[in-house]
Amino acid sequence: MAKIYFDAATGGNPGLSSCAVIIVTEEERYIFENDLGVLDNHSAEWAAFEFALHCAIELNIDNALVFTDSKLIEDSVNREQVKSDKFKPYLNKALSLANHFDLMFVKWVPRNQNKEANHYAQQALYNNTRQTKKRK
Protein backbone atom coordinates (compact mmCIF):
# COMPACT_ATOMS: atom_id res chain seq x y z
CA MET A 1 0.00 0.00 0.00
CA ALA A 2 1.39 3.38 -1.00
CA LYS A 3 1.79 6.04 1.67
CA ILE A 4 0.87 9.55 0.58
CA TYR A 5 1.73 12.68 2.55
CA PHE A 6 0.62 16.14 1.45
CA ASP A 7 0.60 19.68 2.75
CA ALA A 8 -0.16 23.20 1.58
CA ALA A 9 1.57 26.47 2.36
CA THR A 10 -0.15 29.83 2.09
CA GLY A 11 1.46 33.26 2.20
CA GLY A 12 -1.37 35.09 3.95
CA ASN A 13 -4.94 34.04 4.49
CA PRO A 14 -5.92 34.23 1.71
CA GLY A 15 -2.68 34.40 -0.19
CA LEU A 16 -0.47 32.83 -2.79
CA SER A 17 -0.46 29.09 -2.11
CA SER A 18 1.59 26.05 -3.06
CA CYS A 19 1.59 22.41 -2.07
CA ALA A 20 3.76 19.32 -1.97
CA VAL A 21 3.00 15.62 -2.16
CA ILE A 22 5.26 12.77 -1.08
CA ILE A 23 4.29 9.32 -2.36
CA VAL A 24 6.16 6.32 -1.03
CA THR A 25 5.68 2.92 -2.69
CA GLU A 26 7.60 -0.28 -2.09
CA GLU A 27 9.77 0.51 -5.11
CA GLU A 28 10.11 4.29 -5.18
CA ARG A 29 9.71 7.66 -3.48
CA TYR A 30 8.12 10.52 -5.45
CA ILE A 31 7.99 14.23 -4.64
CA PHE A 32 5.57 16.57 -6.42
CA GLU A 33 5.06 20.30 -5.99
CA ASN A 34 2.29 22.50 -7.37
CA ASP A 35 1.34 26.17 -7.32
CA LEU A 36 -2.30 26.59 -6.30
CA GLY A 37 -2.94 30.30 -6.88
CA VAL A 38 -4.50 32.56 -4.27
CA LEU A 39 -6.44 30.56 -1.67
CA ASP A 40 -7.25 30.59 2.03
CA ASN A 41 -5.56 28.01 4.27
CA HIS A 42 -8.37 25.44 4.27
CA SER A 43 -9.02 25.70 0.54
CA ALA A 44 -5.29 25.26 -0.10
CA GLU A 45 -5.31 22.06 1.97
CA TRP A 46 -8.25 20.75 -0.04
CA ALA A 47 -6.54 21.67 -3.32
CA ALA A 48 -3.36 19.92 -2.10
CA PHE A 49 -5.39 16.80 -1.28
CA GLU A 50 -6.92 16.82 -4.75
CA PHE A 51 -3.45 17.24 -6.30
CA ALA A 52 -2.17 14.33 -4.20
CA LEU A 53 -4.94 12.06 -5.47
CA HIS A 54 -4.23 13.09 -9.08
CA CYS A 55 -0.54 12.28 -8.59
CA ALA A 56 -1.36 8.85 -7.17
CA ILE A 57 -3.75 8.12 -10.04
CA GLU A 58 -1.04 9.13 -12.54
CA LEU A 59 1.27 6.60 -10.86
CA ASN A 60 -1.43 3.90 -11.15
CA ILE A 61 -1.62 3.42 -7.40
CA ASP A 62 -4.49 1.14 -6.42
CA ASN A 63 -4.22 1.17 -2.63
CA ALA A 64 -3.30 4.25 -0.65
CA LEU A 65 -2.96 5.39 2.92
CA VAL A 66 -3.19 9.19 2.78
CA PHE A 67 -1.75 11.17 5.68
CA THR A 68 -2.79 14.75 6.40
CA ASP A 69 -2.23 17.18 9.24
CA SER A 70 -5.64 18.71 8.45
CA LYS A 71 -8.26 17.37 10.83
CA LEU A 72 -10.90 19.09 8.66
CA ILE A 73 -10.00 16.95 5.65
CA GLU A 74 -9.77 13.69 7.58
CA ASP A 75 -13.12 14.25 9.28
CA SER A 76 -14.86 15.46 6.12
CA VAL A 77 -13.66 12.60 3.91
CA ASN A 78 -14.35 9.89 6.48
CA ARG A 79 -17.84 11.27 7.20
CA GLU A 80 -18.43 12.19 3.55
CA GLN A 81 -19.77 15.58 4.58
CA VAL A 82 -18.54 19.10 5.31
CA LYS A 83 -19.88 21.68 7.71
CA SER A 84 -19.30 24.58 5.32
CA ASP A 85 -20.84 24.63 1.85
CA LYS A 86 -17.68 26.40 0.69
CA PHE A 87 -15.80 23.07 0.87
CA LYS A 88 -18.52 20.87 -0.63
CA PRO A 89 -17.10 21.04 -4.20
CA TYR A 90 -13.68 20.00 -2.84
CA LEU A 91 -15.18 17.06 -0.96
CA ASN A 92 -17.23 15.94 -3.97
CA LYS A 93 -14.14 16.05 -6.19
CA ALA A 94 -12.08 14.13 -3.63
CA LEU A 95 -14.75 11.44 -3.26
CA SER A 96 -14.96 11.16 -7.05
CA LEU A 97 -11.18 10.75 -7.32
CA ALA A 98 -11.24 8.20 -4.50
CA ASN A 99 -13.28 5.93 -6.77
CA HIS A 100 -10.11 5.37 -8.85
CA PHE A 101 -8.60 3.43 -5.94
CA ASP A 102 -9.41 -0.10 -4.86
CA LEU A 103 -8.74 0.98 -1.29
CA MET A 104 -7.97 4.41 0.17
CA PHE A 105 -7.81 5.57 3.76
CA VAL A 106 -7.32 9.13 5.00
CA LYS A 107 -5.64 9.46 8.37
CA TRP A 108 -4.79 12.53 10.41
CA VAL A 109 -1.23 12.84 11.72
CA PRO A 110 0.33 15.54 13.89
CA ARG A 111 2.22 18.23 11.97
CA ASN A 112 5.58 16.84 13.15
CA GLN A 113 4.82 13.57 11.32
CA ASN A 114 4.15 15.50 8.11
CA LYS A 115 7.41 17.50 8.17
CA GLU A 116 8.71 16.47 4.77
CA ALA A 117 5.55 17.45 2.89
CA ASN A 118 5.45 20.70 4.86
CA HIS A 119 9.09 21.42 4.01
CA TYR A 120 8.55 20.95 0.28
CA ALA A 121 5.28 22.94 0.36
CA GLN A 122 7.07 25.84 2.07
CA GLN A 123 9.91 25.59 -0.45
CA ALA A 124 7.44 25.60 -3.35
CA LEU A 125 5.70 28.65 -1.88
CA TYR A 126 9.02 30.46 -1.49
CA ASN A 127 9.94 29.72 -5.11
CA ASN A 128 6.44 30.68 -6.28
CA THR A 129 6.55 33.97 -4.35
CA ARG A 130 10.01 34.78 -5.66
CA GLN A 131 8.95 34.15 -9.27
CA THR A 132 5.81 36.26 -8.84
CA LYS A 133 7.88 39.19 -7.52
CA LYS A 134 10.25 38.92 -10.51
CA ARG A 135 7.32 39.19 -12.95
CA LYS A 136 6.12 42.48 -11.43
Automatic annotation (TrEMBL):
Pfam families: RVT_3. Residues 6-124 form the RNase H type-1 domain. One of its GO terms (molecular function) is RNA-DNA hybrid ribonuclease activity. It comes from the Bacteria. This is Ribonuclease HI family protein. It comes from Staphylococcus lloydii.
